[in-house]
């Protein structure tokens, strides 16, 4: 049976998707493998069962939120099934730090029968401010992702018995404090086009009145970035404080970190 590289990702603003696809494409070439993609971003796409054979390779990607795996993805791991399948983790963070997210993902995948063989922490534009991680991932990040995938593909082509890497992070994981109930604000420029409704990963924007947003917002800014009229934005005391901290302490460019 031919090998399949299964690219699975959650990517509200498409940056994680970009890195995962580059890694998966480069990884597949040395293995002469096909690529199958599973997008977990939208509510109608979850849950999706993904079963991997021992000859397959899983590339699993997600954005880092508060130094952890996104909470809504935790249930999705129960729908992933590995049989000693090599797994490569891609975590995309907003130029602050990825904290314990990669380690947490490795633990969750190991519980589902995967052998984690590599992990990469890549940088994307921060979800709350475009001044932090501006334009990331950029061409240099893409080149790193391509080399990362190609080198892992070559290693796996030689032997599937690749030792588990030491991934940066701590157990117990970084504590997740209750988030403030902050929702996007909609201006009078809104034309009710429905773009934000269609791209919300939680499906919490009202179809008839996009200014109405239910509780549970991830602050991923998919609605803000996708709005053709620039009619959505975030502003609140908690988010303004966080943005001020990020813009004062996290402007210096960070580079991808690879663990293998």
Give a description of the structure.
The chain is of the alpha/beta class and 260 residues long. It folds into two domains: 169 residues, Flavodoxin domain (Rossmann fold, 3-Layer(aba) Sandwich), CATH 3.40.50.360; 59 residues, Alpha-Beta Plaits. 27% of the residues lie in helices and 19% in strands. Helix 1 packs parallel to helix 3. The radius of gyration is 18 Å and the shape is globular. The relative contact order is 0.17.
Quickly count the domains: 2
**SSE succession:** EHEEEEEHEHEHHEHE
Q: What CATH first level of the largest domain would be assigned?
A: Alpha Beta
Give the helix tally. 6
The CATH homologous superfamily of the largest domain corresponds to Flavodoxin domain
Structural class: alpha/beta
Q: What average pLDDT do the residues reach?
A: 96
Shape descriptor? globular
Write down how many β-strands occur, each being a DSSP E stretch of 2 or more residues. Answer: 10
Quote the distance from N terminus to C terminus.
27 Å
Q: What would you say the CATH architecture of the largest domain is?
A: 3-Layer(aba) Sandwich
Task: Describe the main β-sheet briefly.
Answer: 6 strands, mixed
As residue ranges, the low-confidence spans are none
**What's the CATH topology name of the largest domain?**
Rossmann fold
**Helix content class:** 25-40%
Q: Determine Rg (CA atoms, Å).
A: 18 Å
> What share of residues are in beta strands?
15-25%
């Amino acid at each position: 049976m031919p090998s399949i590289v299964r690219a699975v990702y959650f990517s509200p603003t498409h940056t994680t998707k970009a890195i995962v696809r580059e890694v998966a494409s480069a990884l597949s070439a040395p293995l002469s493998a096909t690529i199958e993609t599973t997008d977990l971003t939208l509510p109608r796409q979850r849950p999706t069962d993904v079963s991997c054979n021992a000859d397959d390779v899983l590339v699993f990607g997600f954005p880092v939120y508060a130094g952890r795996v996104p909470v809504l993805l935790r249930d999705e791991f129960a729908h992933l099934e590995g049989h000693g399948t090599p797994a490569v983790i891609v975590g995309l963070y907003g130029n602050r730090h990825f904290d314990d997210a990669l380690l947490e993902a490795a633990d969750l995948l190991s519980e589902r029968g995967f052998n984690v063989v590599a992990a990469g922490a890549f940088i994307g534009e921060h979800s709350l401010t475009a001044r932090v991680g501006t334009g990331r991932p950029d061409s240099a990040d893409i080149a790193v992702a391509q080399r990362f995938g190609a080198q892992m593909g070559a290693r796996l082509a030689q032997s599937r018995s690749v030792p588990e890497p030491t991934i940066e992070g701590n157990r117990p994981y970084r504590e997740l404090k209750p988030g403030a109930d902050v929702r996007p604000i909609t201006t009078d420029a809104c034309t009710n086009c429905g773009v934000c409704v269609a791209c919300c990963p939680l499906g919490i924007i009202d179809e008839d009145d996009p200014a109405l947003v239910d509780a549970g917002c991830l602050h991923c800014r998919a609605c803000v970035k996708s709005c053709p009229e620039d009619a959505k934005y975030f502003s609140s005391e908690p988010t303004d404080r966080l943005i001020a901290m990020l813009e004062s302490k996290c402007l210096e460019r960070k580079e991808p970190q690879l663990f293998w």
